[in-house]
Design goal:
CATH topology of the largest domain: Rossmann fold
Largest sheet: 8 strands, mixed
CATH class of the largest domain: Alpha Beta
Distance between the termini: 22 Å
Strand content: 15-25%
Strand order of the largest sheet: 1-2-10-9-8-5-6-7
Number of helices: 15
CATH architecture of the largest domain: 3-Layer(aba) Sandwich
Length: 400
């Protein structure tokens, strides 16, 4: 169910259905196995369960902010405090590494023989990851492992998009920053777009002694340039686990749709500062790899993120739009809220719109978000179901 005003939308769980079926494209040719990427893709396409599970395991490790796969450390954490270990590693990782259901592990972990068995299983499974070149000797994920995890994320999200039957973005004929073309009736717009002479002529023609709202005429502007979007994903500590995973999938959905329609997509990964970013590009692989490697940590700095987006949009013509996905208020800086609003104002002066996708934000967070979109002429989406994130991100894109 979707409720709220046009600029503030509240998403709650509801039933999904396929709205339409589209004819699939049939491509000819052979999938080359020469490159590492093609070999990995071939395994995924051929539904190699072991390879797919390996990719999911690595992706979970990144989402859970696991720096390395070390058998002794994993076993020690499970024995010392299983509930905490379950939060740290997640159910899929425990199932994959031990070979048993997490609930079964919990019930039998105190049995010495069972403990030794799962220790050996963990060691053997991690050794297989090393033998495949997916992690190195220290247990850290290699570049090959990162590529496999990114492919798993991509195929998972693509399957969701196809199942839901999400349509193509409808081309908009107007752009508030395009060239002046014709006139239309007044609606909420910038003052600079009001056609004064034409408005006065309309009032005189209607024999009005003063200029009324219904007399106002505004310039209709032709669309110019394409669309450039920067997807900024909050990677602060509170986003760890399922939130950051679904945020990645939503970013993949956006990049897949926008780039397929020749619109550029960039990425900013932010927490206490901006360390990783991809300039707006048509290269889907660059965006995919950037999203796949995101880990959660530290505080949140909105102002630095917006200022970085302004820098990244420099010299770009056409529609410039920043999407901020977060679950918290800005916490970095002496006066984080004031610094954030100042950055939003600067972005607006540079003709950059900003939309905020808030995960369960309320209270002061919602108030700040409303002030931000009021200044930036963007939209606020309050998301209460993580499964809806990709739908919300695409909805924002469709409204550009």
């Amino acid at each position: 169910m979707i409720t709220g005003s046009p600029d503030e939308v509240d998403y709650t769980p509801g039933k999904e259905k396929v709205s339409k079926l589209e004819k699939a494209e049939e491509l000819s040719g052979k999938l080359s196995k020469q490159s590492e990427e093609n070999k990995l893709m071939h395994s995924v396409v051929e539904n190699d369960k072991e390879e797919i599970d390996n990719g999911k395991l690595l992706a979970e490790g990144i989402n859970q902010n696991i720096s390395s796969f070390v058998p002794d450390l994993i076993m020690k954490n499970m024995v010392n405090d299983y509930k905490l270990a379950k939060q740290l590693y997640g159910e899929f990782m425990i199932r994959k590494l031990t070979g048993y259901d997490p609930s079964f592990v919990d019930k039998n972990l105190k049995i010495p023989e069972f403990r030794e068995e799962i220790r050996k299983n963990i060691e053997d499974n991690i050794k297989k990851l090393k033998d495949e070149g997916l992690i190195n000797k220290e247990g850290e994920i290699t570049n090959k492992g990162l590529k496999l995890s990114s492919l798993i994320l991509y195929t998972e999200e693509l399957d969701k998009l196809q199942l839901r039957g999400l349509g193509e973005k409808k081309e908009r004929k107007k752009d508030p920053y395009g060239d002046k073309k014709d006139y239309e009736s007044y609606h909420k717009t910038r003052y600079r777009d009001i056609a004064v002479k034409q408005s006065v002529k309309t009032a005189i023609r209607r024999a009005h002694t003063e200029l009324k709202v219904e007399d106002l005429r505004v310039y209709e502007r032709e669309k110019k340039g394409g669309i450039s979007i920067i997807y900024a994903l909050d990677s602060s500590g509170s986003m760890k686990g399922e939130k950051i995973k679904m945020g990645k999938l939503a970013g993949i959905a956006l990049a897949y749709k926008a780039i397929s329609e020749k619109n550029k997509v960039g990425v900013i990964v932010f927490n206490e500062e901006v360390k990783n970013f991809v300039l707006p590009t048509l290269n889907f692989q660059d965006v995919l790899m950037s999203l796949a490697n995101i880990r959660s940590r530290a505080e949140t700095d909105f102002a630095a993120t917006i200022n970085k987006a302004i820098e990244m949009f420099s010299g770009i013509k056409g529609t410039k739009h920043l999407v901020l996905l977060t679950d918290v208020l800005p916490t970095k800086g002496l006066s984080p809220e004031e610094e954030t609003l100042k950055a939003v104002s600067i972005a607006r002066n540079d003709e950059i719109t900003i939309s905020i996708i808030g995960i369960n934000i309320d209270g002061d967070g919602a108030k700040l978000a409303k002030r931000m979109i009021s200044i930036s002429n963007g939209r606020l989406y309050k998301v209460k179901s993580l499964d809806k994130l990709d739908t919300v991100v695409l909805e924002d894109y469709y409204n550009l």
